Amino acid sequence: MRPKGYFFFLIFMVICLFPGCREKDPQIDAIYPRIGKMGEVLTIRGAYFGENQEESYVTVAGFAPTTTAYITWRDDLISLTIPEFAEAGLVYVHRGNKKSNAALFSNEETIPKPIFGADAETGPRIISINPKSAPIGGIVTITGNNFGISREGSSVWFTWGVEASSSAPAELIGPASVEVLENDFGYEVWGEREIRVRVPDGAMSGNLEIRTARGNSRPNYFEVSEKPGIKTFRNKLSYAISYSVDIQVQEASSANTLYLWLPQPVNSASQRLGEPLSRREDPFIENYRGLSLYKLKDLETNKRKEIAVSYPVEVYTVETSVRSREIRQNRPASLYAAYTAPSPLIPGDDPRIKRQASSIAGREQNPYLKAQLIYRWLISEGGIKPGPLTGDALDALANKQADPYQAALLFCALARAEGIPAIPAAGILVDQNSAAVRHYWAEFWIDGFGWIPVDPALGAGACPAKFNLAQENGEYYFGNLDNQRVTFSRGEVHLTQMESQGRTSGRERYYAIQNLWEEAVGGLESYSSLWNDIVINGIYQE
Question: Which residues of 465-495 are buried (b: 16+ CB within 10 A; e: fewer)?
Fold first, then answer.
């Protein structure tokens, strides 16, 4: 007869065979950039790296960077300066005696340059598209070669059904192109020989092409199918805008850094951002999730620093006509997971929100009609006023009183409570005097159709005194949007601070919805920042 201790030992050994009892290996999910230069910042995302670096380290092509190269070390994120090395190689995270899976990093300086000539084919080449027809939001697999081992600045473009003015030059009349966007979870796979993307909002049947630094593919025909209605982009207005941040240092005692996250106008189906017209200083990181990161080093006491930028932005009126009975739900998993989830700003899971949403929707099952009922309730019962007021979406619901910011968040919360993907949008309205006024609205997603804009505040008539409000505004601002605005954020932008010891600050109810605007590091003891409002330098009509 075996002793009791033996059985306890067996039980202990069996339990420890389960994964939860073993310390998990570091796991790399992605690195950015995949192709870069020495001296740039390499970001590694994943899990089980450890909350502190301690004795852990990263190797790049077998080379371990020095301690000073590390910027951030968290359990799910590491950032460090790319060390000097001659060739491309594998990236690993080492923690104790455990090593992560590998990710390939390529040194831009050592990548062979394309050879140009009649027989050279260095650009992307599409061999097949499967399926050859899909709805908005549907997955399409593109096979071929020369796509690039990672996406970096490459992109996939579909035909875009913008309506050009009759006075536009002949070469501009006809279909243009709309890009697949990260914000819509548009890219699922990008490899040298295979790409999987979602058909983007605003796409129509026509050419599909891949654009890379090595060239563009030949266009291939693709059919956008099963659209339960029509979305039109017309009446382009071009804006020249500028904005700036003034930094005044009161006290800086030693080495220091100030990071500024500066929003850019977004690229979307209804808005196009051009190259900067001017800027005082180049950003540290360009266009990361729609922002530019500026890194100001070793600021001095009683010194002033200004970051100023100017952009051209093209904005189109959006008009939609939806045949609600033809809506077929296919529920793209990643998009639904992200944009029906609750958040502190959008508490779609709060019992008060859920009760109100259920009361508004009643027995209606069609997502488009449910969104319409929520919108109509808001503009009639929500007490929307120009504001500004204090409080959040729950306060607006309790008080039956909301400003444009609260109304946009409350619409999203009620929609998400009913399983409808919805995002808030932030930016500016442009009034008759070309003055910019901060404003907020929303969009909701319909499978096979794409994003549909709603502006509860303008629908309720809560607008700036000198703004050109659309006729029959209550009906117009459900499904349609004017071109008298510039959008700076679509959805909430959650950023990670650059350094663990950084002192961060945000800006509420500003022209973009993001959690992080400034981060001070080191001996920057006291400073002030003035984020100036957007200035409209010019408006041009086609």
Answer: eebebbeebeebbbbbbbbbbbbbbbbbbeb
Closest CA relative to residue 451, chosen from 46, 137, 92, 20: 137
Distance of CA 272 to the CA centre of its chain: 15
Helix (H, G, I), strand (E, B) or coil at 307: strand
The tokens for 63 are 């080379």
The chain-wide mean pLDDT, for the chain, equals: 87
The confidence band for 254, taking pLDDT boundaries of 50, 70 and 90, is confident
User: Residue 318 to residues 269, 315, 454: CA-CA distances in angstroms?
Assistant: 9, 9, 11
Bridge-based pairing of strands 278-279 and 422-430 is: unpaired
Query: What is the domain extent for residue 445?
Result: 339-490
Least confident of 102-106, 301-305, 365-369, 468-472: 102-106
Has residue 519 been placed in a domain? yes
3-state SS class at 423: strand
Rounded to a whole number of angstroms, the CA Rg of the chain reads 26
Domain at 403, CATH number: 3.10.620.30
Extract the tokens encoding 483. Answer: 């071109």
Same domain? For 262 and 183 the reply is no
Same domain, 88 and 148: no
The burial of 47, by beta-carbon neighbours within 10 Å (0-12 exposed, 13-18 middle, 19 or more buried), is given as middle
Task: Answer yes or no: is pLDDT of 40 > 80.
Answer: yes
How many independent structural domains does the chain possess?
4
Instruction: State the helix-helix crossing angle for 404-417 and 351-361, rounded to 10 degrees.
Output: 80
- The pTM (predicted TM-score) of the whole model is 0.76
DSSP tag of 109: G
By percentage, how much of the chain surpasses pLDDT 70? Answer: 89
In Å, what is the CA distance from 136 to each residue of 5, 198, 447, 481?
63, 7, 7, 20
Instruction: Give, for 456, the enclosing helix (H) or strand (E).
Output: helix 456-459
For residue 88, what pLDDT is reported?
A: 61
The string of DSSP letters for 317-329 reads EEEEEE-GGG---
User: Could you give the 3-state DSSP secondary structure of residue 527?
Assistant: strand
pLDDT of 116 above 60: no
Q: Which amino acid is at 464?
A: P
> What are 60's two structure tokens?
């790049």
474 and 347 fall within a common domain: yes
The candidate with the shortest Cα–Cα distance to 92, out of 48, 52, 54, 61, is: 61
One DSSP character per residue, 4-61 reads: HHHHHHHHHHHHHTSGGGSPPPPEEEEEE-SEE-TTSEEEEEEE-S-SS-TT-EEEET
Q: Which one, of 137, 253, 239, 241, lies nearest residue 197 by Cα?
A: 137
Indicate whether 276 belongs to any domain. yes
**C-alpha distances in angstroms, 94 versus 22, 52, 161?**
17, 13, 50
Same domain, 154 and 196: yes
Residue 290, pLDDT score = 85
For residue 379, the Cα-to-chain-centroid distance in whole angstroms is: 28
CB 352 within 8 Å of CB 269: no
Question: Tell me: the pLDDT tens digits for 7-26?
Answer: 444 444 444 444 444 467 78
Residue 270's pLDDT is 95
Last residue of a domain, one of 192, 227, 262: 227
* Cβ atoms of 512 and 489 closer than 8 Å: yes
* Residue in 368, 362, 271 with CA at minimum distance from that of residue 324: 368
